[in-house]
Design a protein that fits this description.
Belongs to the LRRTM family. The chain has 567 residues and is an alpha/beta fold. It is built from eleven helices and 27 strands.
Length: 567
């Protein structure tokens, strides 16, 4: 009736007011961001968990803060919590009862802290965990019952710690675990029962540890494992200790190890292996029995090994030719020295290594009397190896069909790189010589012309200096030497004149320049060098006004001629 309704309407509000504050919604903590029942208190330098977090919170992120310790019952009031992120703090100590009261927790992230030790019962209060991340800490040891009770755990991350051992049966209760990462630790060996109980494990990471030997007998109960990562360890031997078939394994990564030989039995127990990574090991060849065990592969990686390109490589090469899957890398010869850097398949095809009578690779150190003679053989492929010199045996008779296979020399070959380098050097030398010849020829005519011009100028200068020196020299006296006959003498004495012939004596060069200095004489008189001048007295008289001759000079036959000052 009306009374009952009145009592109800009054009692309910009173009960709510009297209810403890723990069941009422609290305001969002200061410096945090709230999204319904999710609280983000990230990057705020918190040193402790905020005290006013709502009890109904289902997700709490305290990432990138300054938390140092997790005390006992640290999260006891957050019973509804489903996930808790505590990564990227400075947590070094975790109390064994720190997670008491949050049994609903499914995801706990404690990565990137400074945790060195976890107590045996640390996770016993969170049996519903699905994902536990302890990576990038400083854990040195795992307690024997570290993960006891975590039967619902699906993924466990222990990457980048300092673990040296894995205790026996430490994962025994993790029967539903599907992902386990123990990579980047310091593990040196595994106990036979280290992974006991992991019946549903799908992916196992053991990369970047310090294993030197792996025996598949350590994984006898991983019947559901599909991917095993063992890259970048120090594994020198991979063995199969028990005669059992690991039918579930599909991917195996062994790259970055020190494997030199592959045991066929190791792969014979992996009938469903699809992806195999053997990059960066020390393999020189693979046996026929091993490649025959790779019947199910779809992807293979073999780069970075020490492949020895001799007939022992043939089983692998023939298998690769028939392989229809994905070859993720190129195989390069590491030996012999002359084949270094070349593709394995190219060397095998070029030198017919895998035929009954392989063509020997040429020797660069053999003497001139060697039985090998160079001959350039045409090869249909376009590989750079095709440009190499091929050598045939000519000193010895050709082998018959019944003769055994000629072994391929392992040490003496022609280096293709040396041939290329020598050819380039020769071409460069020829080019330089031709350039010098061309430049010399191009500039030669002008050089000769310049030399000729310089010589002509020097001659003209010399002649001009001699002419100037002659013109500046003083005028010489000339002597007329004559020897008159008796009749000529009488004509002169009686008539005062007559035909006479005189010889002018003196310096021929001086006479020449004297005559040249007289204009009329230059026009009317002929002169030459190399003989005495013969002049008619009448001509001489025309140019000399005074003729001195006395009886003394007359009888001596010497006349002194003086030039006329008017001429």
């Amino acid at each position: 009736g009306p009374g009952t309704w009145l009592v109800f309407t009054v009692a309910v509000p009173a009960w709510l007011l009297a209810a403890p504050s723990s069941i009422r919604e609290r305001p969002c903590p200061q410096s945090c961001r709230c999204d319904g029942k999710i609280i983000y208190c990230e990057s705020n330098a918190f040193r402790d968990v905020p005290s006013n977090v709502s009890v109904g919170t289902q997700g709490l992120s305290l990432r990138y803060n300054s938390l140092v310790n997790l005390r006992t019952h640290q999260f006891a009031g957050l019973s509804q919590l489903v996930w808790l992120y505590l990564d990227h703090n400075y947590i070094s100590a975790v109390d064994g009862q720190a997670f008491h009261g949050i049994r609903r927790l499914k995801e706990l992230i404690l990565s990137s802290n400074k945790i060195t030790l976890l107590k045996n019962n640390t996770f016993h209060d969170v049996p519903n965990l699905r994902n536990l991340d302890l990576s990038y800490n400083k854990l040195q040891v795992l307690q024997p019952n570290q993960f006891l009770g975590l039967r619902k755990l699906l993924s466990l991350h222990l990457r980048s710690n300092s673990l040296k051992t894995v205790p026996m049966r430490v994962f025994l209760d993790c029967r539903n675990l599907e992902f386990l990462d123990i990579g980047y630790n310091r593990l040196r060996s595994l106990t036979r029962n280290a992974f006991a109980g992991l019946l549903k494990l799908i992916e196992l990471h053991l990369e970047h540890n310090q294993f030197s030997k792996i025996n598949f007998a350590h994984f006898p109960r991983l019947t559901n494992l599909r991917a095993l990562y063992l890259q970048w360890n120090r594994i020198k031997m991979l063995t199969q200790g028990l005669p059992w078939m690991w039918t579930s394994l599909q991917k195996l990564d062994l790259s970055g190890n020190e494997l030199q030989v592959l045991d066929p039995s190791t792969f014979q127990c992996l009938p469903n292996l699809q992806t195999l990574n053997l990059d960066s090991n020390k393999l020189s060849n693979v046996s026929q029995q091993t490649v025959e065990a790779w019947i199910s592969l779809t992807t293979i990686s073999l780069a970075g090994n020490l492949w020895h390109c001799n007939p022992n490589i043939c089983p692998l090469v023939e298998w690769l030719k028939a392989f229809k899957g994905n070859k993720e890398s190129t195989m390069i010869c590491a030996s012999p020295k002359e084949a270094q850097g070349e593709k394995v398949t190219d060397v095998v095809e070029t030198y017919n290594i895998c035929t009954a009578t392989p063509t020997p690779i040429p020797s660069t150190t053999s003497p001139l009397t060697s039985a090998f003679h160079p001959e350039l053989l045409p090869v249909p492929t376009q590989s750079v190896v095709d440009k190499k010199l091929m050598w045939n045996r000519t000193a010895s008779p050709a082998p018959s069909e019944a003769s055994p296979t000629i072994p391929l020399p392992d040490t003496e070959y022609v280096s293709f790189h040396k041939i290329i380098a020598g050819s380039m050097a020769l071409l460069l030398s020829v080019a330089i010589i031709l350039l010098v010849i061309y430049v010399s020829w191009k500039h030669y005519p002008s050089s000769i012309k310049q030399l000729q011009q310089r010589s002509a100028v020097k001659k003209r200068q010399k002649k001009a200096r001699e002419t100037e020196r002659s013109l500046n020299s003083p005028l010489q006296e000339y002597y007329v030497d004559y020897k008159p006959s008796h009749s000529e003498t009488m004509d002169v004495l009686v008539n005062g004149t007559g035909p006479y012939t005189y010889t002018i004596s003196g310096s021929r060069e001086s006479i020449m320049y004297s005559l040249v200095s007289l204009p009329e004489a230059k026009e009317k008189m002929n002169y030459a060098f190399g003989f005495d001048f013969c002049l008619v007295f009448v001509h001489i008289k025309k140019h000399f006004t005074t003729l001195h001759y006395t009886s003394e000079t007359f009888f001596k036959g010497v006349l002194i001629l003086e030039p006329d000052s008017s001429t």
